[in-house]
Design brief:
Largest sheet: 12 strands, antiparallel
Distance between the termini: 48 Å
Oligomer: single chain
Shape: globular
Order of helices and strands: EEEEEEEEEHEEEH
Number of helices: 2
Strand content: over 45%
Length: 218
């Protein structure tokens, strides 16, 4: 159990309004990104299917968030994926990447429109070039929650994403999800990989933008 304080109500008073300056290892994710050569391996009735996909991700800074004394800085994100073969959305995902400067905890929340949500966590330092967060089914703190059908047909037992910041300014990820597929004895290792290139710079979080606008007016 972490060493939490007795006072769980008092919020910090020295909050920096500039989220971009306080994102730690997440700072390099802020902005817009795109790639056309992502690789997905997913389960099908006649065996694993490998598909190449087109991915766009937008990360926008949010205002600082407090849970009593706990202070978090973060990015709201949206992932949209299509393929060359089909125009329909192949994958859509929204959520937050969060950083707690005091403890070095990194969190990713995710929600997909097929009835699944998760909260994954890990540890990192501000200067790290690699971030890993993980969630497991059945955990009440950092876990996975799915619809009754997904639990029956494609149960997700674990989720992990590794993010690596590359020297050329791109960043890469590998997601590893372990599934229990209905009718199959062995667990299925579902993997996605991609390397993304920046297409837009980040904007300041709303609070910081308001303060900047007021300062500009004098």
């Amino acid at each position: 159990m972490p060493n939490f304080p007795e006072d769980v109500f008092t919020e910090p008073t020295d909050v920096d309004p500039d989220t971009l300056a306080n994102l730690g290892p997440l700072r390099r994710l802020a902005g817009g990104w795109q790639a056309r050569k992502g690789v997905d391996v997913n389960p099908k009735a006649d065996g694993p299917e490998r598909r190449v996909f087109i991915e766009t991700i937008q990360f926008d800074p949010i205002d600082p968030q407090a849970n009593g004394p706990q202070l978090l800085y973060g990015l709201r994100y949206h992932i949209h994926i299509t393929t060359e073969e089909e125009d329909i959305t192949f994958h859509d995902q929204v959520g937050y990447w969060l950083w707690e400067p005091k403890t070095g905890v990194v969190m990713q929340t995710l929600a997909i429109p097929r009835g699944q949500v998760a909260l994954a966590a890990g540890q990192a330092k501000s200067e790290d070039d690699r971030i890993v967060v993980r969630a497991e089914r059945g955990q009440s703190e950092y876990g996975i929650c799915s619809t009754a059908f997904l639990e029956y047909a494609f149960r997700t037992d674990s989720y992990q994403i590794e993010v690596v910041f590359n020297p050329d300014g791109t960043w890469s990820y590998t997601t590893d999800t372990v599934l229990k597929v209905h009718g199959q004895d062995a667990p299925f290792a579902h993997r996605d990989q991609n390397t993304l290139t920046r297409i837009s710079d980040p904007k300041p979080n709303p609070w910081k933008a308001i303060l900047d606008a007021k300062a500009a007016k004098g």
